[in-house]
Amino acid sequence: MERYSKYRTLKIELRGAVLNVTMNRPEKLNAVDSRMHQELSTIFADANSDPKVNMIVLAGEGRAFSAGGDVQWMSDLVEVDGEWQRKAVESRQIWWSLLDLEKILICKLNGLVRGMCTTIMSLCDAVIAADSASIADTHLGVGLAAADGCNAIWPLHMGYLRTKDLLFNATVLSATEAKDLGLVTRVVPRAYLDAAVDEYVMALERQPIRALQMTKIAVNNQMKQLVWPSLENGLNLLEMSNFSKEHQVAIRAFNDRNRSDKAV
What we know:
Blueprint: E1 10-15, E2 18-23, H1 34-48, E3 55-60, E4 64-66, H2 71-79, H3 83-99, E5 104-109, E6 112-114, H4 116-122, E7 126-130, E8 134-136, H5 150-158, H6 160-168, E9 173-174, H7 175-180, E10 186-188, H8 193-205, H9 209-242, H10 245-263
Parallel strand pairs: 2-3, 3-5, 4-6, 5-7, 6-8, 7-10
Antiparallel strand pairs: 1-2, 8-9
Helix pairs in contact: 1-3, 2-10, 3-9, 5-6, 5-9
């Protein structure tokens, strides 16, 4: 486990050949800040090269999977010189490491998921969701282009018209609605989620592991070719909207509301 000792916002635990990775900022609904973003940019490559790992289970600590980007960090991405450029490099590393991941990746969707973590969820090999979970790409709500990954992946599940409708309106989907659209594998009662994921993992462990991983690669090859150009172009569009007046106004209003709430 020495290779994982550097991680602080991700809780790492190896159980047998299954690496449990838990986003661990529960007080912020596991919102992604600068440190977590950097850690997400390396964890999947680290796990991929670990001979002790056959599968990964990704979850969020507490009542959320992830609320998306931390709003204070969003301010830094506009105001701190070089922060967006660093973030863009890491984003490419996140998306490519997920597309190139040979180990089976299972999402334990324990609660709400928003923003960039909706893309991470959408790149998992299986999504086992609590019936209380909800899914949305809410970039437009903070004046950002919804071009952070779901724009590239969701059309493969549900077509372009439905994808645009969901992104344009930042629609919040229930776990069951997401399953009907092909974004979720199974929906189970919240109290049964841990057991359901364990059962899914144990069923896969009965398969020949290299053949299982090669099957994943075979299925993913076409997706990699289709998705990567859109992810790359999406980052450029996201950058343009990151420095727009609309986004800056939205972030300022959000932070002002937070300060007012704390002052009450």
